[in-house]
Amino acid sequence: MALSIAGLFALLLANTNPVLSFDVAGRVQSEHIFTGVEELINQGYWPIAVLVFLAGILAPALHLGSVAYVSTACCLKIPFPWIPVALRVSELAEPFNLMPVYSIATVVSVVKLRMLGAVEWEFGARWVLGVALFSLFAQQTFNRRLVKARLENMGVAA
Asked: What is the pLDDT of residue 26?
């Protein structure tokens, strides 16, 4: 529960703080995750923009949110509505939660972009790393068998 809630907060902060700033030929620009999606759409790469949005913003939010919802219900022993749906959403969104891959891709991008100009890590990069770590740890510790057993004890069909 704690890992997924922390991951949601980190995801919120990763999307509201700039991740990188570029200085190429005197032109300085700070970039958020979503501005990368917008720029891909503006350049006509909308399939890649959709993929980045799904893997870097929507899937992590759905996965961490549904894990937090189900985990909170199990920890507090409160049969929240729609728990089976949230459990299914967590199963479906988990493979598409690619924040750890996004983090590695960002590091590789910085190495390549430094050949063109100055690239600086911004505060949002720390939150991207946090989302990646919290997502990985939440995936490893969320035991679906244990959750289903607890839900059955609460009288909720999973």
From this structure: 75
DSSP string spanning 4-53? HHHHHHHHHHHHHS--EEEEETTEEEEE-HHHHHHHHHHTT-HHHHHHHH
- pLDDT digit string (tens) for 11-39? 999 999 988 888 877 777 777 888 888 98
Claim: this prediction has a pTM higher than 0.70: yes
Residue 25, number of CB atoms within 10 A of its CB: 6
State yes or no: pLDDT of 138 exceeds 90: yes
Q: Provide the residue range defining the domain that includes 86.
A: 2-154
For residue 158, what pLDDT band results from cuts at 50, 70 and 90?
A: low
- Rounded to whole angstroms, how far apart are CA atoms 125 and 147? 32
Tell me how far apart the alpha carbons of residues 38 and 45 are, in angstroms, rounded to a whole number.
Answer: 10
Per the listing, tokens 């949002």 go with: 124
Angle at 101 between CA 31 and CA 4, to 5 degrees: 90
Query: At 111, which CATH number?
Result: 1.20.140
3-state SS class at 118: strand
Token output for 79: 């049969």
Structural domain total, the chain: 1
Per DSSP, the three-state class of 54 is helix
